[in-house]
Amino acid sequence: MQFIDFNIDPRMQDNLRAMGFEHPTPIQSATVPQALTGRDILGSAETGTGKTAAFLLPLLQKLLDTPASRHPRALVLVPTRELALQVSEQATQLSKSLPLRVTTVYGGVGISPQTQALKRGVDVVIATPGRLLDHVGRGNIKFSDVQVFVLDEADRMLDIGFLPDIRRVVRLLPKERQTMLFSATLKPIVSLSREVTRDPVRVEVEKTVTPDAIEQVLFPVPEHLKFQLLIQLLKDETADSVLIFSRTKRRADRIVHKLKREKVSAAVIHGDRSQGQRVRALESFRAGKTRVLVATDIAARGIDVEGISHVINYDVPQQAEDYVHRIGRTGRAEAVGNAFTFVAPDDERMIHRIEYVLGHKLPRRQVDGIDYSVPVVRRPSPEEIRKYVEANRRKKEAAAAEAVATVTKKRRRRRPRRRSKSAAPAKSN
Ligand code: AMP
What is the pLDDT confidence band of residue 419, given thresholds at 50, 70 and 90? Predict the structure, then answer.
């Protein structure tokens, strides 16, 4: 199938060409013709499959075919600010020279510019749930004219706990609308899809980049040697664009701090970073100015950077499905990528589950230049430190008391004994 086979505006065809999209991806071929008929869509597709254009093309076409309004006619709900920005970028490119206005609404930035944009009038709103409801509360947005509603990465939305917010938004939407719901996996969102879609066409597509295009290796390593292993792996010059996944925000910060100490350019992206900081980190990574980007799972959702040479799971993911999602960040655009996973002894059960999901075992490798026998240098806990300090203080006090006692004893020994009067021998007459 070709883009030309889609019944879409020639200006959008031009825009697709300008974006370098030559042929539709499988999810686009499966979704666009169905969505153009107005049917609801229930799509199983991950980031990297081209799902964004799959819903944007029919959405924009529908808006071109229907009369303009002061109020938004399409709403795209996404779980994260990064994804909001990415979808927005594609929507802007696809709608170039079309009489359609796109605006993005997400938290972590000032609300006034968004308010002004909404008040000026927009056709497409791309939003994260919290800030969108904020605007609803302020009376900045009306959903009465929404004709197309897209729920992107619905499974992640539920993971983050957005279900109540989604329900609040959906209650405000007109019943007569087209709904497109996309999710990496459909199982967790079955009941949500029943609530929000009507007789949807199910579209399931495998990732365009198969794991075969990604060299996956497990590196068994004790926890305390992980950073050393990372440095060793970064000696490989082909590792020029490295995305590292860390389990927690604090660990992500620590890894970046240590990398900088080793003179490796690195940036971090997680939920505690401001929107500006995240955008700058991502931009710098995308431009190749930062070699390493360290991220947590949620923040990494929606990171779409071409040419990531290596994905390194510094910590194994907490769900086997996340593994597939993480490694899909590399090996894009038909290039071969590397996905390395550090496996601490406690991670073996999760690795079994990942191998089960993949349907095959993963090779294991050790790295030269690492002494795996180096014993654990475990950091004591604050409680252990307190006990240690206390014990030391007691020891010192005991030693001081003993020293005083010894000196006193010695002095006593040196001092001639004064005879007591009572003990003086009685004078004989
Ligand atoms: P998505 O799954 O929508 O996040 O898209 C993943 C990447 O594929 C993005 O960088 C898109 O720009 C790119 N992409 C989407 N559709 C196509 C296409 N038909 N041809 C080439 N690249 C595409």
Answer: low
Phi first, then psi, for residue 150 (nearest 5°) are -120, 130
Question: pLDDT tens-digit profile of 250-284?
Answer: 999 999 999 999 999 999 998 888 888 888 998 89
Ligand 1, pocket residues at CB < 6 Å: 21, 24-25, 28, 47-53, 304
Query: Based on the number of CB atoms within 10 Å of its own CB, is 178 exposed (0-12), middle (13-18) or buried (19 or more)?
Result: buried
Task: Calculate how far, in angstroms, residue 340's C-alpha sits from the geometric centre of ligand 1.
Answer: 24
- Ligand 1 center–CA 202 separation, angstroms: 20
List, in order of start, the domains of the chain with CATH numbers.
Answer: 3-204 (3.40.50.300), 214-358 (3.40.50.300)
The set of residues, in sequence order, having a beta carbon less than 8 Å from that of 169 and lying 6+ positions away, is 75, 77, 129, 132, 133, 136, 143
Nearest atom within ligand 1 for CA of residue 304: 10
Contact status, residue 296 vs residue 271, Cβ threshold 8 Å? yes
Q: Which of 194, 192, 191, 178 is nearest to 31 (CA)?
A: 178
Q: How far is CA 330 from CA 15, 241, 297, 314, 334, in A?
A: 26, 9, 15, 15, 10
Query: What's the 28 CA to ligand 1 centre distance in angstroms?
Result: 10
Report the separation in Å between the CA atom of 122 and the middle of ligand 1, taken as the mean of its atom positions: 25
Lowest mean pLDDT among 10-19, 34-43, 207-216, 226-235: 207-216
Backbone angles phi, psi at 227, to 5 degrees: -65, -40
Residue nearest to atom 14 of ligand 1 (CA): 50
Whether the Cβ atoms of residue 199 and residue 40 lie closer than 8 Å to each other: yes
Q: What is the DSSP letter of 29?
A: H
